[in-house]
Predict the 3D structure of the following.
Amino acid sequence: MNKALLTIILALMAVSAHSQHALPNIEAHTITSDILSADRDVLIYLPSGYDVHKDKHYPTLYIMDGQWYFYNGVAIQKTLRGELLLPEMIIVGINMPRPERDSIYSYHWDEFRHFIRNEVVSFVDAKYRTSAERLLFGWESSAALVTSLLFDDGSVFKGAIATNGTYITPEMTDAMARQTQGSKKHLYIANTIKDIYNIDASNQSVAVLTQSNLPDLVWEYRLFDSEIHESLAYVSIYEGLKFYYRNFASLAFSSIDEFNAFGGIPEIRNYFIRRGDQFGLSTDVDSNTKNSLIWLAWRRDNFKAFQLFMTEFSEVLSTRRYASAYWQNRFGQFYLKHKDFDNSIHYFTQGINLYPDDEYMALMYSGLATAYQHKGNMKQARINYKQAVKAAEKNNDPKLELYRSQLNGVK
């Protein structure tokens, strides 16, 4: 079980420990359906910022079998730390308890499809601030349902996650090929070889997709063979959302070689332009990507890349992230290490002036003195070594004797 799944399950357990009425941002509704001639219960989760950002409209994830998987979708949202990987979403759980669930798939398939598409979506859109970005999740028999809804002519859904079985025929793909799509649709299919009940249905559907010409359908089939029929749903919701939003996240790289292979700064800028166009976001490179690249160059001790990122993304240096003596000292020490004494002096001086009482004061004075010493300005070197000693004495700094020896070494 991977760490992401473990985090989700732990959060899910915490969420489920409370009643739905004790949880904030979750509302229960009953929809009286003319199509089904019956009432259906739905649960709706609203993002934490819903009541704050009054003008914001949110994508919606419709979860079939909400009685089992609604809180899993909520847990994924609850564990988001900002919108770095996935956006905030409205989660709709459609309850399908047995024995009604079995009856739906045996006798009322078409009616239930129309109920979801026409009545549930209309109810949610009328009551909440939704965007046109609607996704579906279905497990087992519901996987076939969500695939059918995605393939419908004039479908209001942009993506579907179908796990542990689905049902796609050549007739369905041929019909979809004849449709005029306004934008691409996405389908994520997941299963495990241990799902002896439905693996054949998944494989057959994938075989049909492989033989079809559907340029407006982006799809993927993944096997999670460490999971079983009953456990895969928890993994596939998260992985399916990551698949749909694979162009949404901030960029992160493990090495400068990977950054270069990606296409460097030009391709990073293109990525955010495409991302902005697809999801209605800013087309500027986001601060998280800028920060991670600066950090990467520093951690990999690649001074050439560090200079590039500090120049290209200089605007991020004035944000709150770097508003501390800690960061001013870190930059100063890195420039000092690589003998860029002018930039080193700049950051040490900036840190000393902005944060005069910080614990890094002695270290910054010492670094500033060392930079001046390398530039041959012994007067400024001695002045700043004295300040380092003074600050170290004030703060009982364990490096006090080092600073005294540095001062004594300046003639």
Notes: Residues 3-244 form a domain with the Rossmann fold fold (CATH 3.40.50.1820). Confidence is low (pLDDT under 50) at residues 13-21. Residues 226 and 377 are 65 Å apart (CA to CA).
